[in-house]
Specification:
heterodimer; A: 85% helix; B: mainly alpha; Rna Polymerase Sigma Factor, Chain: A; 2 domains; 78% helix; RNA_pol_sigma-70_dom (chain B); sigma factor (chain B); transcription regulation (chain B); sigma factor activity (chain B)
């Protein structure tokens, strides 16, 4: 019976090892991919805005408060008109997904840590 | 070894402390093995079924209802695995008529027995059903809150009634 118990546990730990490492790999890959995609989109947007010289309109903020107050909404209007909306949406989307994945990973971290501890104990501490 | 209830063990496993599954394995392996061995006489096949059943139980730990005991669920998994095993066995043997009629007869007999069990008095029905699910007399006594000897008597009477009604039916 002891032998059978050992066989059962070995099978379960083998399955769990595969699952844990596969999930860990996929989660980290997804987090990194979405985060990098978000960064790339932001870089692209900034480059685009520099190229269009759209950012120059913000130089108005160096002026007096009165002038800023008078032209604030106009500046914002111009900025939204000239900015690449689709790319900004994509950047926000990817960043939101990456933040969601990171938060989920942090929430589940204790569970993953416990699993890894158990696996290490089983495979190495015997 | 600190004794933990199934509920506590399942909670721990759900939290990722998978080494607690060892408790479940140690607690139920013998029972499951004996139950399977009664139906399948080949030791290797029995061991395979027991291993797969525990693996299936482990895979479904996340879905387990904490308020329900683990053992009946495990028995259900074993029953399903045995069905799969018999199905596989049949696939390897050429399908002749004898197997088909055997299966029909087996199903018919099972149905008759189930009907007869339903006809038993409430207490006997419960006890006999629990025995057929693989519970020990001790566990049944605990479930039904009755002394062990009373349970033995109830089950014996139930069995005798079943044998009698089976004889009547075949006559």
């Amino acid at each position: 019976m002891k032998q059978l118990e050992k066989k059962i546990l070995k099978k379960i730990y083998f399955f769990e090892t595969q699952q844990t490492f596969l999930q860990l790999f996929l989660r980290i890959l997804a987090m990194v991919s979405f985060f990098l995609a978000g960064i790339i989109w932001i870089y692209y947007i900034v480059q685009e805005l520099i190229y269009q010289q759209t950012l120059d309109i913000f130089e108005i903020f160096r002026e007096d408060l009165m002038i800023i107050r008078e032209n604030f909404w106009e500046v914002i209007g111009i900025f939204t008109e000239e900015s690449p909306i689709l790319e900004i949406m994509l950047a926000i989307g990817t960043l939101v997904i990456s933040v969601y994945l990171i938060v989920k990973f942090i929430v589940n971290f204790v569970k993953i840590k416990n699993k890894l501890n158990s696996l290490i104990k089983f495979w190495f501490a015997r | 070894m600190k004794s933990l209830s199934d509920k506590e063990i399942i909670i721990k496993i759900k939290k990722g402390e998978i080494d607690y599954f060892t408790y479940i394995v140690k607690k139920y392996t013998r029972q499951i093995y004996n139950f399977t061995f009664k139906k399948i006489k080949n030791r290797e096949d029995v061991e395979d079924i027991v291993q797969i059943s525990f693996l299936q139980l482990y895979k479904s730990v996340g879905r387990l209802d904490l308020e329900k005991p683990v053992l009946p669920y495990l028995f259900q998994i074993v029953r399903n695995e045995m069905k799969m095993f018999w199905r596989r066995q049949k696939a390897t043997v050429s399908l002749d008529e004898k197997i088909a009629t055997d299966e029909k007869e087996e199903n018919l007999e099972k149905e008759i027995v189930e009907k007869q069990i339903e006809k038993l008095p409430k207490e006997q029905k419960k006890a006999v059903k629990l025995v057929s699910q693989g519970y020990s007399y001790k566990e049944i006594a605990k479930f039904l809150n009755k002394p062990l000897n009373t349970i033995r008597t109830i089950i014996r009477r139930g069995r005798l009634k079943l044998i009698k009604s089976k004889k009547n039916e075949t006559a």
